[in-house]
Amino acid sequence: MAILGAIIKSAIDLKGSFTSETDPVKEQEEVLKQLLEKASATAFGTYYGFEQILQSDDIQKAFSEAIPYYDYIKMRDMWWSRTEKGLKNITWPGKPSYFALSSGTTGKSSKRIPVTDEMITAIRDAGIQQVSALSNFDLPSDFFEKEIMMLGSSTDLQERDEFLEGEISGISASNIPFWFQGYYKPGEDISKIDDWDERVQTIAERAKTWDIGALSGIPSWMELMMKKVIEYHKADSIHDVWPNLQVYTSGGVAFQPYEKSFRKLLNKEVTVIDTYLASEGFIAFQQRPDTTSMKLVTDNGIYFEFVPFKPEYINEDGSISQEAPSIPLSEVKKDQDYVLIMSSVSGAWRYIIGDTIAFTDIERAEIKITGRTKFFLNVVGSQLSVNKMDTALRELEQQFDIEIPEFTLAAVKIKDEFYHHWYLGTEASIDAEQLSSALDEALKGANKNYKVARSKALKGVKVTTVAPDVFYEWNAKSKKKGGQVKMARVMNEEKFAEWEDFVKG
């Protein structure tokens, strides 16, 4: 047994044994108080009367009543644009060191989200919490001296005026603590390669010089990297190259749609641990092995609110009505979809991140990601969320013994009748009519509103299959290859026309 690994494992186990049970509700109350106190003298805090809110008998209620919801455009236009110009103390004391670039799902110009030193510290502390949680997983001591392959965006951050900017995975990797440098692969030099294909090619060439025990990154790009490594070394599986690979830490998107195709690249079981790291902060991580849900980081720089995800609260563009009610953590219910609202040490206030979540364990504050507000398809009352779409596609995978890691769809009108046109990313050759019929039935079973819509104005389902690589090249076209991309699961008419032209080309 490796001595170093045994020491590290013992230290993690010891820390876990001394970690007392926490109260997420009280932690959130304290975080909100700290955020308001810290930012009370900023332009934002003065404008919205943070000092007065802090004097309230119910700070959470006073906070939600005093401040409207902010999406990125509203936050940028009213506040962050001043920060970009070099002004300080706008939404957070001082100035941020970084701006995280996030193209989201629109393919338009990148969002520029401030990342303060306090947020860097919060992300690092949440990472340490996640490492400590490894004591709950049955991992051998020698795992803790293996190397970790972290596949994110380039760490070669760009200077823009007085700030550095890049994607959040690149910013985080460029701030890795010194004691972790020896474990981190592909290392600083390769991580700075901006061209994703060149970076992956270099990883493939050097792969056998590393003893990788864990992988960390977005599933779609991780799959492509592993395929490249396997192909370069003429191997049958990734374990032929990295025999000690035991853990995969997923992030950015839900792992379940990719699980079947991902595991085909392995010849041993690996422990999959889900992580929820967004441009706005480290939101949640999987804390224990007997669930795929993730624990909200409730004690570390982010205050959460939750808006019930109901059609009457969601505008056509995916934004939230200002009349939509929000609730704190103390009032959430299990298995109900909520729009996630954040306030943070980066100076985001009542910020709509765009994701929807559901609680699977309220006492532990454990959640699962259920979709995106912009990916809610409610044409002619179908009320399809990404979660329901994924459920139906997993049923198709099982029924036809195929993999469907990617998809997108739109509501289309054919001869004055509405259809849902799906593009499924799969290598399988299954008759499109068969898939259409099976998908239609699976959706009826997953969502009663869809079933009602199918009996009325929604006339049917059309399926077109394309190779999964088409989706990755579409993202590359938008300069997002290898980045923190969330593929647009639902497209509007204009974007869907662009997509179809791209597929035909």
From TrEMBL:
Cellular component terms (Gene Ontology): cytoplasm
Source organism, top-level taxon: Bacteria
InterPro entries in alphabetical order: GH3 (IPR004993), GH3_C (IPR055378), GH3_M (IPR055377)
GO MF, one annotated term: acid-amino acid ligase activity
N-terminal signal peptide: none
The protein, known as: GH3 auxin-responsive promoter
GH3 middle domain residues: 297-362
Residue ranges occupied by any GH3 C-terminal domain in the UniProt entry: 390-494
